[in-house]
Write a structure and sequence with these properties.
35% of the residues lie in helices and 13% in strands. It is built from 19 helices and 16 strands. The structure holds 7-[(3-aminopropyl)amino]heptane-2,2-diol and zinc ion. The site of 7-[(3-aminopropyl)amino]heptane-2,2-diol has 13 residues, from loops.
């Protein structure tokens, strides 16, 4: 299994710069690259990456996407004087040439392809290329929006040609629509292009009709172009996460890409003068973490935009830290998407219903209630209460943004614990022991008895259980003290151990403990005080216990064919979990689990984004192979294959929809549609 993170950076790409005054292009400065690289060094991230050199993209590689004419024009600019450069630049919308632009653009292409090769050859698991000029606006025969060659599009064509790939996902989280990339692949079902972008009902540049949610692709490519327009500024972490949970991730897991390439623009981050958005740097750690669970972790992140140097640098560092496998920092802010974001999410889900199985039972009845083309929801003017208040008066005050980010990032970047996982040396653990894993010694019997006899006596009956509890307490203590990131233990009675672990965690001072219990939970702790939130995935309703704000029994019978759990994890469990913002996650698998190993692995893989990746797993001791799978995930060694994708049945979709309708006011990340009549 590949490991390691490539970092590709070549200082020569800083030579391209604007020679005359142009208020539109003057934000695309060389310092974007050098200060990002400096920021990576200051966080000691450069030395942890595998250095892969850039190279020039060849003419042949550029011609995979661009016309010969476009290449020739670009090449001819190398020997031009300023007057001529200015004249050629004026042929394009928002582009400038410098004598070194052609050389830099070829380096940007080459750096991108070097990253694809490093990932596809298994030399590294993933990586990031810091390049400029950016690429996603450039088109077959034109430069556009600071972009000369479409680095990411060339990379996708290159990967198809050289590695015979048939399914590539491009995620474009830049705040501008990568119309260039859309045009290049809109008839191509082998490349799924997802872009969110500031749109404001076509007001915002490039102000194209085809940037709206109903541009779903053409011909065979229908369904493989997903546009999520932001019709208001000030979108934040919750809006971005909601877009992943309710649009991108369900589609991505159904598509099952062999490679994921990110058009990674950070002008969608707070402080950026172009984006005017509110999302803070740590959200990119979460977005990256989600995408790392696809394509067996094969992820290539390519820089696009980002014009506030401090915001750009912090977001780049959050991305690279996550690519390296570091714990994912807690995402800040109120976990509630704004009305406009939910409308856009609902619209794009409706637009794509005909093309994706996971949307087969999507309720699009809202379409009938509205007239004409605006038959999709559009808020001409939603009331301010449904807007996000901006964290900073205005993004244009760079110094104020610097100050805000200085303070904000202070409590985000905790030191990564040297040891990732603690284990009790349970059955089968010898398979995954490494320098990342710490065997914890049993707590001595008397100490356990003392601990258990008082507080948990009513729960613990026999001696064997007593001993298994002992090492569990030790692990929980180490997680609390941040000596380790996560831990795993087996138990003869996982249900009992989980109950004791929950009570012990709250007693240790964890304020919000999320427990996901797979199988018959038997004893359900009292969740009235909100210090625990329990999601019990079981085959049938636990006797008499109905769902309430802090306890959910999600009835699920795994489909025999394969893994149909995606819709439950993405559409329900993660939104509730992110709304709750736990500071510890306990995942327990009890007897007669009703989920397959791949469904549980999916759950564990995705849930690591919570609680700064603090997870305690307790597994019924009969489940050896499950324990090994979960342990490997916790160590961060591998990204699981999620088995055969099976779309959810209508019954299961309706069950999740019913829970969502019932609880979306309490747990607002569940929202993915707007109630009519608001
Ligand atoms: C890579 C990138 O998407 O960040 C480039 C953005 C280009 C913005 C051009 N603005 C033009 C405004 C014209 N009124
Ligand atoms: Zn941009």
């Amino acid at each position: 299994m590949a490991s390691g993170t490539a970092l590709i950076y070549d200082e020569e790409m800083t030579t391209h710069k604007l020679l005359w005054s142009d208020p539109i292009c003057d934000i695309e400065v060389p310092e974007r690259l050098s200060s990002s690289y400096e920021q990576l060094r200051s966080y000691h991230l450069v030395e942890r990456c595998v250095h892969v050199p850039a190279r020039e993209g060849s003419e042949e590689e550029i011609l995979l996407v661009h016309s010969l004419e476009h290449l020739e024009v670009a090449k001819s600019t190398q020997t031009m004087n300023e007057e001529e450069l200015k004249r050629v630049s004026e042929n394009y919308d928002a582009f400038f040439f410098h004598p070194s632009t052609y050389r830099c653009a070829r380096l940007a292409v080459g750096a991108t392809l070097q990253l694809v090769d490093a990932v596809m050859s298994g030399k590294v698991r993933n990586g990031m290329a810091l390049v400029r000029p950016p690429g996603h606006h450039s088109q077959r025969n034109a430069a556009n929006g600071f972009c000369l060659f479409n680095n990411v599009a060339i990379a996708a064509e290159y990967a198809k040609l050289k590695y015979g790939l048939q399914r590539i996902l491009i995620v474009d989280w830049d705040v501008h629509h990568g119309q260039g990339t859309q045009y290049i692949f809109e008839e191509d079902p082998s490349v799924l292009y997802f872009s969110w972008h500031r749109y404001e009902h076509q007001e915002f540049w490039p102000s194209l009709k085809e940037s709206d949610y109903d541009a779903v692709g053409l011909g065979k490519g229908k369904g493989f172009n997903i546009n999520l327009p932001w019709n208001k500024v000030g979108m934040g972490n919750s809006d971005y996460l909601a877009a992943f949970f309710h649009v991108l991730l369900p589609t991505a897991f159904e598509f099952d890409p062999e490679l994921v390439i990110v058009s990674s623009g950070y002008d969608s981050g707070i402080g950026d003068p172009e984006g005017q958005m509110n999302a803070t740097p740590e959200v990119f750690a979460h977005l990256t973490h989600f995408l790392m669970q696809l394509a067996n972790g094969k992820l290539c992140v390519i820089l696009e935009g980002g014009y506030h140097l401090k915001s750009l640098g912090e977001s780049v560092c959050m991305t690279v830290k996550t690519l390296l496998g570091d714990p994912v920092p807690q995402v800040s802010g109120e976990m509630a998407p704004c009305l406009s974001a939910v409308e856009s999410i609902q619209n794009v889900r409706a637009a794509h219903k005909p093309y994706w199985k996971w949307l087969a039972y999507e309720d699009t009845s809202f379409l009938q209630n509205l007239s004409t083309k605006s038959h999709f929801l559009k808020t001409a003017n939603s009331n301010p209460s449904t807007e996000h208040e901006s964290k900073i008066t205005n993004n244009n005050d760079t110094v104020k943004v610097d100050r805000f980010l200085e303070l904000h990032m202070k409590n985000i970047l905790f030191p990564v614990p040297p040891i990732k996982t603690a284990t009790t040396g349970c059955e089968g653990s010898e398979h995954f022991l490494s320098e990342h894993v710490q065997l914890v010694k049993e707590m001595d019997k008397t100490e356990v008895e003392a601990l258990v006899s008082g507080f948990y006596a009513d729960l613990v009956k026999d001696n064997k259980t007593l001993l298994s509890l002992g090492s569990m307490f030790v692990i929980l203590d180490k997680i609390l003290k941040k000596e380790v990131c996560n831990g795993i233990a087996t138990s003869p009675t996982a249900a009992l151990s989980a109950a004791v672990a929950l009570r012990h965690s709250v007693r240790l001072g964890f304020q919000r403990v999320l427990c996901v219990f797979v199988g018959d939970m038997q004893m359900i702790p009292n969740t009235e005080d909100g210090k625990m939130l329990i999601i019990n995935i079981c085959e049938k309703e636990q006797s008499g216990k109905t769902s309430c704000k802090h306890y959910f029994s999600l009835n699920w019978k795994e489909d025999a064919e394969g893994n149909d759990f995606f819709s439950a994890v993405l559409g329900f469990i993660l939104p509730v979990a992110y709304s709750y913002q736990p500071n510890l996650t306990v995942i327990a698998v009890g007897p007669n689990r009703n989920l397959g190993i791949s469904g549980i692995s999916l759950l564990v893989a995705l849930i690591q984004g919570l609680a700064e990746s603090r997870i305690f797993a307790v597994i019924e001791d009969t489940e050896i192979s499950l324990m090994q799978n979960v342990a490997k995930l916790l160590v961060g060694a591998s990204t699981p294959a999620f088995g055969i994708y099976v779309p959810p049945t209508q019954e299961k979709v309706n069950r999740i929809k019913a829970l969502r309708d019932q609880f979306q006011q309490e747990w607002k990340m569940l929202q993915c549609s707007v109630k009519e009549g608001i």
